[in-house]
Design goal:
432 residues; alpha/beta; six-stranded mixed beta sheet; 20 helices; binds pyridoxal-5'-phosphate
Length: 432
């Protein structure tokens, strides 16, 4: 398998090069040169396979022989060493809980997988090939990346986050590790952080001196392992013998796009639903046919505050840039913070189920779809644990949440982050 740039002006590369580069030289996202179909025999034996066995069959064609089987098995074993359960919530509605990893958000799977791939590649190279992972976060990416890359030899991590716009748990997760992890608190918004990262990638001064890569879902090693969720959920839902609809709370559209890849590989997914907060470029696109990016708006589901989702070009590619085909495969709905809070309270009071604000958006979007479509099993993805969002949850829910010892310990830790407000300060640090 090779990877090509969706901008079409860069040479094809190996998996390793796509991972190390992050973005192609022409600034396009990498995309696999083909999407392999899994054989019927795989689906026949799916019910009896372990999570790791499923993951290896799914990811192997994309990794090629660039990572030996035994090593890949070890990587997947470490990546998937927590539960990924589907739990019933109400009639026709289940929740896929993706928050049982170390930083309580789904990004742990992609970040851990990418960190271990990069660690393997840099261990194969000499020291001059050390890599710096530079990443902007609106909340959850930072913690998952910090945790995933912590003490990985040959990899330094620099995280930018917007001051005052991440929750306390999120902030502590990315500012308290130390070692090879450095965090900068940026005077500005997530868009400002993102702009600094983009500028660094374009900066010629780094070309010779430092290998920079990204750990956002533009990186294929962060994006592709997200396919696992859909296979693992599907396996758990098989006994219901109903068509499965996934509703995904979406920001950069990496997670949902991985689901679409799983479907292309042969996984029988009936339909996709994208739930969004006030950042509604995609629902607007699906209703008007016009793709109009705009500045991001701050909401209580901060990990989805994205005004120009970077993975949308990949989605377009999957559906052959055909608006009609995409519209058949994907529905999308947008919700205000007020509706999101109401849904959290309603779910808690009526079903005794607590979601975080992102999961609640996924739930609402699923319900909107189910209103018009029956005879399917709906699954919304709960992308983070509610405990990460104590600052925005209704008090009744906070009172019902158990603050576990891991979170208490984390909150006791001392934050360590330098403040920056301009690109020059980041650059000085990277060129030090
Ligand atoms: C990152 C994140 C999302 C959005 O995922 P995308 O792949 O960017 O669409 C949703 N919910 C939570 C909790 C997240 O951390």
């Amino acid at each position: 398998m090779e990877y090509y740039s969706l901008n079409g002006r860069s040479p094809k590369v190996s998996f390793q090069e796509a991972v190390v580069r992050g973005l192609a030289p022409d600034k396009g996202l990498y995309f696999p040169s083909s999407i392999p179909k899994l054989p019927n025999s795989f689906f026949d034996k799916l019910p009896s396979l372990t999570n790791e066995e499923i993951a290896i069959e799914v990811i192997k064609p994309y990794v090629n022989i660039e990572i030996p089987d035994l090593e890949l098995e070890r990587i997947l074993h470490e990546t998937l060493d927590f539960d990924i359960p589907v739990v019933p919530v109400e009639q026709d509605v289940s929740c896929l809980e993706l928050y049982h990893g170390p930083t309580f958000a789904f990004k742990d799977v992609g970040a851990r997988f990418m960190a271990r791939c990069l660690g393997y590649f840099s261990q194969m190279e000499d020291e001059s090939e050390n890599v710096t992972v530079l990443v902007a976060t609106s909340g959850d990416t930072g913690g998952a990346v910090a945790h995933g890359f912590y003490k990985v030899p040959g990899v330094e991590v620099v995280i930018l986050y917007p001051k005052g716009k991440v929750s306390e748990v999120q902030e502590k997760q990315l500012t308290t590790l130390g070692e090879n992890i450095t965090a900068f608190e940026v005077e500005g918004t997530f868009d400002d952080c993102q702009a600094m990262v983009k500028r660094a990638f374009l900066d010629q001064d780094f070309q010779e001196k430092r290998k920079l890569t990204s750990a956002n879902s533009i990186n294929v090693a962060r994006w592709l392992p997200q396919m696992f969720y859909y296979f693992l959920a599907y396996k758990q839902l098989l006994p219901l013998q109903k068509p499965v609809v996934f509703s995904i709370p979406s920001g950069n559209y990496g997670n949902i796009c991985a689901g679409m890849m799983a479907q292309q590989m042969g996984l029988p997914i009936h339909h996709f639903v994208a739930g969004t907060n006030a950042n509604k470029v995609v629902p607007d696109f699906l209703s008007t046919g016009n793709y109009r990016p705009r500045p991001s708006i701050a909401t209580i589901s901060n990990a989805m505050d994205v005004g120009d989702p970077s993975n949308f070009v990949r989605i377009q590619k999957i559906y052959g840039d055909d608006f009609g085909r995409l519209k058949k495969a994907l529905s999308s709905f947008t919700y205000s913070d007020e509706k999101t809070r109401k849904a959290m309270l309603q779910l808690y009071k009526e079903q005794g189920y607590i979601t975080d604000p992102h999961g609640a958006v996924g739930y609402l979007a699923l319900k909107a779809y189910l209103k018009e479509n029956s005879e399917v099993q709906g699954v919304f993805l709960e992308t983070a644990h509610p405990i990460k969002f104590l600052n925005v949850l209704p008090q009744e829910i906070i009172d019902a949440l158990e603050i576990n010892s891991a979170v208490n310990e984390l909150l006791q830790k001392q934050k360590k982050a330098d403040k920056i407000s301009a690109y020059g300060e980041l650059k000085n640090y990277l060129l030090r």
